[in-house]
Amino acid sequence: MSRTFNPENPEGLTIPSKSDSFPIQRSVSPTPLLSLNRFPQKQENKPSHTITHGENSVLSLACSDKYLFTGSQGPHIQVWNLITFQQEAVLKGHLGSVLCLTLSKDQKVLFSSSGDCTVRVWDVDILKCLYIIQVCNDVGDLFSVVYCDELDTVYIGCQNTSILRFDLSTKEDHQTHNLPQSCNYSKFFDNIPATSNACEIISSVEKEEIDAKTSAEQENVHRYEVHDCMIYMNSHDGYVYSLLLGENKDGRILLSGSGDGDVKVWSITKNFMELLKVLKGTDAGILTLAIQDGLLFCGAQGGDIKIYDLETYHHIRSLMAHDDDVLALAEGDDCLFSASADGTIKRWNKTFEILNTYKGHTGIILSLTLSPNKSLLISGANDQLIKFWDINLIDDNDNYHETVIPETSDIMLYALKKWILLRTVSGKPKYLEECFRGAKFLKNVFIQLGADSELIPIATGQNPLVFGKFNGINDFRQQHKRLNILVYGHYDVIDADEKKWLTSPFEMTAKDGYLYGRGVTDNKGPMIAAICAVSELQQEKKLKANVSFLIEGEEENGSIGFGKTLEKSKNLIGEVDVILLSNSYWLDDVTPCLTYGLRGVILATIEIFSEESDLHSGMQGGAVSQPLNDMIQVLAKLVSEDNYVLIPGFYNNVRPITSYEEQLYERILESNPSKTSETKEKLMSKWRYPSFTIHKIDVSGPNNVTVIPCKAEASVSMRIVPDQDIDDIVKSFKEYVREIFSELRTKNNIHIEINNKADWWLGDPENQYFKAAEQAIKQEWGVKPLYIREGGSIPAIKLLERKFNAVAIHLPMGQSTDQAHLNNERIRLKNLQAGKRIFKNLISKLSEIEKER
Amino acid sequence: MIVLIEFHSNRPEIGKSSNIDSWFGRSLPIHHKYKYSYIKEPKFLLYKGKDSIQLAHLLTRPAHSIINQSFDSRLRIDKRRPINGDGFGVGWYDESNPGPDNTPCIFASVTPAWNNQNLARLAEKIRSPLVFAHVRASTSGTLSENNCHPWKYNRLMWMHNGHIQDFNKIKRKLQQSLRDEIFLFVQGNTDSEWAFALFLNQLSDPQAEKFDHHMLKKAMLKTIEQLNIWAEEAGITEPSLLNFAVTDGCSIVCTRYINSRTEEAASLYFSSGTNFKEYKPGHYRMIKADKREDIVLVASEPLTFEKADWLIIPTNTCFVITSKFNVLLFPIKDQYYNADRMRKRQSIVPPAVL
After folding, report:
1. A18 interface with B at CB cutoff 8 Å
2. Alpha-carbon Rg of chain A, whole angstroms?
3. Per-residue pLDDT tens for A308-346?
4. Which among A562, A574, A676, A781 counts the fewest CB atoms within 10 Å?
5. Is A492 one of the annotated active-site residues of the chain?
6. What is the DSSP string of A325-388?
7. What is the ipTM of this complex?
8. Beta strand pairing status for A326-331 and A336-340?
9. Domain Glutamine amidotransferase type-2: where (chain B) (predicted)?
10. In percent, how much of chain A has pLDDT > 70?
11. Which secondary structure element, helix H or strand E, spans residue A549, and what is its range?
């Protein structure tokens, strides 16, 4: 959405100062090779996404194909969707910190161990608690839990140095109706003092406990108790921090790492567990364990990783891996990851050399896991963040061979990330080169994704248009001509004040399910989504229409030269039946919208000046005609006290409201009850009635309170609506200003300049194209979109409609809080992904319409 | 009230009277049949943290702080006299001085802890990463500052919760065994201080600048072993309650011990986590924001009412906090070791009515 005329962003029209005119200096191209080519980026150690966990440290992680499960010092387990990076559910039930999470091999069951002395077992499909394993004995925090699928047994490492074994196949024999800890009478706690201040003693968990008790009764979750004989007391001397299952010549083994510094190897069979070997350590506690290729890795306090051969139980070597305690290990394909209290994650190859160091967290990294396909490394820390590291980007081999468009990775995000790096700010000479790079980048994207593409120059010093065309498949059964669709958008962006951004504006950052960066929502994100949608259709051989893209580089600068260039390149573009664009936002954050109207705009400057130079008001005041005084008189007559525009005939052609239109407004208000401040009148004033604004008045001279300036210059704008004629309005505005000026008894001169104008646009929500868009949106989001209008202006849309005699449909992709043009611009990943699918669906649907013709 | 019902069902009648006693402000006459009715029970508390703690958070502010424990001591074996009013002592190490001259500072007084303005004032200002605190109910020795726990010897600090049964019968043997410099160091006349002397005597160089927890643990176990030998020699049949704590300013070794196969030692709890947080005035919780421990608290009685925060140290266990903040629990496997007692819940039957 163009807000060039927004008074807060007047840069588009101002003459750049000299300091602005130096082009951006780059030592290295941010996008070497072709746009979508990837090559091993050794330096790529920034997270691909970050999730804010809340106020708690992230203590434990488990990752399935679909979800990430996270446990923290708070009692709830959070479930995150791995595609949208947004919270999917919260698993409630525990009363203490969730210290360990683990999944069964088939990913159907999740086990969570907690400081509340219980292990909860969850169904991963329905995200409900299946049953609870609890301990009657006073074992303290349950630091670690592992599940042996083959033996159907869980093993639990405890604070009181014991290891618990619980055979799930026999669990029915151990059912209990007691709540945890009610079975073990405690002289202290269960004998709450009988003193006068007894009422003051309310445990902070008491309420939660009561809640949990009630809900436990309601949800009817079975509880099973670990019997005394399944508790291996004093398995270690210290807390049992880590458990791990393995296999070697001794059969199935369980490894336990403890604060006493030892690792113990236990032989496990059904209903039996026996100590095989003690791998004696030092005072440095063992906090985490991992096995890879028959080697056991033990993360220790102080920062060492000890390596043992699991066949011989020989200590092979110790790596001085980190500067502080090693808290988590994860085994990847051919490599090992270690995370530490020093805030770094390191990647090790088979010869124990560091391949990479990831520094993203600001605190202690407490947990680490890999996605099941080993492409994503996930880390949790006490900075309350979860970070995702795309480990496919890094190649193990030292030879830099490039990989061209891997099929599995998401091209859309990769392309967007690289495109955001290019500072395609229009209207500022210093960014000219960069804009050209941005245009070339886009051209290459088109070519690599299967389109024909070329740059269409406008004029020297102006950014070219990028044209790309995907041809539909030749379907001989198709009786009629293929439909021609034109997608319009822009690659230029508004400049960004880096100091006011939380992240670097020209480096796409993913956080909490949102992508941040200048241009992610206006308009690079939606354009990449649309391009990828069409490319996918083409690859799937389902593209039955010709889809062209016309992506301009001067949109934020008032689409300078767009009309003329369009005229010149009409042949290149060819016929167009439908125009699609996605350059505005939903009305709120939840309801998808279709935009069917935009206001037009006329931006003008009124200049009143005298023949004299600036004068001293004490010496000359009263004796001369004063330009600013005249300006005030003129402006005062343009608009009334109640904002009524006084230009004669201004309202003559404003289209009356129809009952159909009223219904649309009523639907918006019904579906949007949270925005109570919005009234129908307010929406109409913003969207369907014209308005007049005085943006600023500049004066000549030193801006001193004793100077009569010789020149005053006012910037004004008018937003115009159907069916006002833009040229008529310009004409009557000029005439009226001259007329009221001439009535002033002044010797000054006036000059009126129309700086820019853009016509209004109004689509027909009832036409078949809009209906197709409505269906496509409904199929994606499950709700009918709201039909809305916008108070802003996009100059190109009406031009395109006229030029090609086509119909435009405007599908907003982002949410109202996307902060377009503002600091911390963003788009929700879910919206971008949904946007791509909607474009795909819509283009298929539009092709069908043509068939019926 | 539910709590009360459970209490009745779990405890013999004898407990009821003492419980009702506390319900009514201890004004009812009590018909006690306690075996150890002469035992007066002190309380102790120790703190080791990666960061220093303001003493007030341990001593004065918690609703069930050691000061408050001194007049509302719920786990006392002797229910007749629920007040520990025979003085108190606090010992701490300087937070800013990790050097070899970082010996502990001790502040002790014979006035009741809850009544001592100096303690309240100091606790608001002093911060330390390692604190010992003790409230006394004198079992032996006169009421004198020399007889207040903790005691120090160069870098080492010691306190004791319990008593040595029939100490007078073994006192001479004990003193006889000491090296001169240790014999002469003792100022007071309590069993606890002489036990400290016995402990020091197990160390080859008690003046050393550096110890480690292995050395301290070894000396501690030898001290207990020696006391057991002398008790046997002297024909003492009643058990001693030997909850000792010693530190060199880096590691802490303490015991929960009784020289009996069947009875329970005086209570001792521990709690570990990352932050001892006051969530509302007087009420604290142990926060666990990390797998590892930043704070370890050991106390005769829990300082908070958060059940999940506290774990009982099993009877006859040597409890060690290493300089790396690892908490280790070693069962003391001597002639009084009883694995069955380990398995059972320790506090189901209060020791007083055995």
Report:
1. no
2. 34
3. 999 999 999 999 999 999 999 999 888 999 999 999 999
4. A676
5. yes
6. -EEEEEE-SS-EEEEETTS-EEEE-TTS-EEEEE---SS-EEEEEE-TTS-EEEEEETTSEEEE
7. 0.81
8. antiparallel
9. 53-290
10. 86
11. strand A546-552
Measured between CB atoms, does A404 come within 8 Å of chain B? no
Is A117 an interface residue toward B (CB < 8 Å)?
Answer: yes
- Which residue range forms the structural domain that includes residue A642? 600-654+689-758
Q: Which two tokens stand for residue B58?
A: 């341990």
Domains identified in chain A, total number? 3
CA distance A401 to chain B (A): 42
- A251, A120: one domain: yes
Domain membership of residue A396 (yes or no) is no
What CATH number is attached to the domain comprising A207?
2.130.10.10
DSSP state, residue A2: B
* Domain boundaries of chain B, sorted by first residue: 1-31, 32-353
Kindly report the pTM of this predicted structure.
0.81
Q: Tens of pLDDT along A207-253?
A: 555 555 556 556 678 889 888 888 898 899 999 999 999 999 989 99
Q: Read off the amino acid at residue A142.
A: L
**Same domain, yes or no: A740 and A827:** no
Q: How many residues does chain B have?
A: 354
Which residues of B are less than 8 Å from A99 in CB distance?
Answer: 288, 291
Q: Are A786 and A748 contained in the same domain? A: no
Decide if B308 and A259 are in contact by the 8 Å CB cutoff. no
pLDDT class of A637 with cuts at 50, 70, 90: very high
- Which residue among B10, B290, B327 sits closest to A238, beta carbon to beta carbon? B327
Query: What average pLDDT does range A732-746 have in this prediction?
Result: 94
Rounded-to-integer distance, Cα A15 and Cα A603, Å: 16
Out of A758, A788, A812, pick the residue that ends a domain.
Answer: A758
CA angle A833, A834, A838 (to 5 degrees): 125
Give the residue from A758, A776, A799 where a domain finishes: A758
**C-beta of residue A327 within 8 angstroms of C-beta of residue A338:** no
Between strands A304-309 and A315-320, the pairing is antiparallel
Query: Quick one: pLDDT band at residue A276, thresholds 50, 70, 90?
Result: very high
pLDDT digits (tens, 9 = 90+) for A789-843: 988 888 899 999 999 999 999 999 999 999 998 999 999 999 999 999 999 999 9
Confidence band of B19 (pLDDT split at 50, 70, 90)? very low
* Residues in B touching A140 (Cβ below 8 Å): 311
Residues of B in contact with A188 (CB under 8 A): 74-75, 267, 269, 301-302, 310, 347
The CATH number of B32-353 is 3.60.20.10
Tell me the nearest-neighbour CA distance from A197 into chain B, angstroms.
Answer: 9
